[in-house]
């Protein structure tokens, strides 16, 4: 099953994606936004990760998807999105997103992908809450998450180390009821039949 | 990739084994390296396979490329990383001997040290070098490594025994020599 957004679709990852993921993860600036240190990943290591850690999408292993932009002549692989740590009792999960193709930054693709993943998580997986971690040096990401409906819930002080110093990690969360209200408002605004 | 000025560091790929086989079997390259046996192709394949997955705090290996040409000229890495003590051992080999003496080793190791101190948050980095390896010692001194000890006749060389020198550099010295790191991303003020 592919998850369809407005301008993106989310599909399962494939071994054929490895060279593209490798290019992103070995980009020092990209990895700083994603989290983690700029270790350099070989193509062999990337392929093995796809074949082992991301081979199965289910409750236990998490849902690991590729983001494709579909508003051009052909789908373009532009990023990845992951839902993991799924808690069956409290009905929450943690999401992580990466737009690796720089020319797709600041154009709303990440926001569309995040909204699509959240809709799937609430509608199909019956989650009640989604959370994510981001960093104080990435206000662009934070604004994008806020547009989907995420609110800042906490600041984990100096939890991140990057480029020679410590930075705060920010915790954001989105509840199902908030998302549904926001989605209803957004769809009403988008509707051409909206009374003026 | 980790970018220096004249070199860059990329992941080692299994396909790098053939080049590494030539280097480790070249007497001139290995004279002052801890490589004392003729190496089989199988051994080099195993090395490259393992090195292609060495991307962790305890063992991070890189291929060194000349930035202008993408020529693979050697390898370097931080190994024996200690999560408790926040130390690691530096290793390097420039196998393409026609590229010796051009400052590529200095540029690559400065990049590697910046990675160790500013991305891995290490406290100190050390290395062992054989006493007659004067060109390497001069390079390490130029990078900021200081002499920390000597182990007499510790290793068998070609016809005689070699003294091993221990050298090291800590975070404060690296920062003093190379300046503060640039800010990451875009941190809101106030």
Brief descriptors of the model:
heterodimer, A: alpha+beta, 8-stranded mixed β-sheet, 8 strands, globular, B: 190 residues, alpha+beta
Describe this structure in words.
The complex is a heterodimer of chains A (196) and B (190). Chain A is an alpha+beta fold and 196 residues long. Helix content of chain A is 33%, strand content 33%. Chain A has six helices and eight strands. In chain A, strand 4 and strand 5 form a beta hairpin. Chain A is globular. The termini of chain A are far apart. Chain B has 190 residues and is of the alpha+beta class. In chain B, strands 1-2-3-4-5-6-8-7 form an eight-stranded mixed sheet. In chain B, helix 1 crosses helix 3 and helix 4 crosses helix 5. Chains A and B meet through helix 2 and helix 3 of A and strand 1 and helix 4 of B.
Question: Briefly, what is this?
Answer:
The complex is a heterodimer of chains A (196) and B (190). Helices cover 33% and strands 33% of the residues of chain A.
